[in-house]
Design goal:
This protein has 8 helices and 12 strands. The protein has 2 domains: 122 residues, Response regulator (Rossmann fold); 102 residues, Orthogonal Bundle (Arc Repressor Mutant, subunit A). It is of the alpha/beta class and 239 residues long. The strands form 3 sheets. It has a 5-stranded parallel beta sheet with strand order 2-1-3-4-5, sandwiched between helices. The longest helix has 20 residues. Bound molecules: calcium ion.
Length: 239
């Protein structure tokens, strides 16, 4: 994402005219816009790229918008989703919000209203990412991480100096304890896309965390890799 961009948006809409209108309007507003015309393509894009927001039509070929939303929410609970529907009935709205959409617009809508909602959703999410609610210290299984001091003492009593990125990644995983944090989110939050680390890079960080904090690094209790999805920190209360 370049510095002048207000954010990246994926438009998932099969009606060509509306897709083109949205693409043009959002581009003119300063967003970087990508498009997908069916539900399967949408999920593929979301797996491969980072987006600040998704505009998701419900009636789609291949896979409907409700299912797309539900699938995204299995691995990503924070990506803002604005749903669109042609139907004016309340049931789609309720179902969409139940399945994890953040906001909902019924077609036809005023472009101005869509732009306002897009702006609001992206700002709200950025604020949450910048100031996630969290503690300064995390204790688990005899380990104690002090995020501000960037150091930890493990269950064997060894003092560990953490690098800045190690601290950031630990903070992120702990803030989302017992949830899978996707690779895309880690890249965006910890590396900020300044350099492109491979999955291997994140794996190496996780391997180090296991060496620091696990009794048996080959049988981890706290730091888990979820193949093809991301990583999860599990604390003992929930394990
Ligand atoms: Ca449609």
């Amino acid at each position: 994402m370049n510095k002048t961009s207000k954010g990246t948006i994926l438009i998932v809409e099969d009606e060509e005219a509306l897709q083109a209108t949205l693409r043009l309007s959002l581009s003119l507003e300063g967003y970087e816009v990508s498009v997908a015309s069916d539900g399967v393509a949408a999920l593929r894009r979301v797996r491969e790229e980072y987006f600040d927001l998704i505009i998701l039509d419900i009636m789609l070929p291949e896979l409907d918008g409700i299912s797309v939303c539900e699938t995204i929410r299995l691995t990503d609970t924070s990506l803002p989703i604005l749903m669109l529907s042609a139907r004016s009935g309340g049931s789609d709205r309720v179902l969409g919000l139940k399945k994890g959409a953040d906001d909902y617009l019924t077609k036809p809508f005023h472009l101005e209203e869509l732009l306002l909602r897009v702006d609001k959703l992206i700002r709200k999410n950025r604020k949450l990412q910048e100031h996630p609610p969290m503690d300064d210290v995390c204790a688990f299984g005899g380990n104690r991480i002090d995020f501000n001091a960037q150091e930890a003492v493990n269950a064997r009593g060894e003092r560990i100096e953490l690098s800045q990125r190690e601290t950031m990644l630990l903070r992120l995983l702990v803030a989302h304890r017992n949830e899978v944090v996707s690779r895309e989110k880690i890249l965006q939050s910890v590396w900020g896309y300044q350099v492109y680390p491979t999955t291997r890079t994140i794996d190496n960080f996780i391997l180090n965390f296991r060496k620091y904090f696990e009794a048996d690094s080959r049988d981890p209790k706290y730091f888990h890799s979820v193949r093809g999805v991301g990583y999860r920190f599990t604390d003992e209360q929930a394990a």
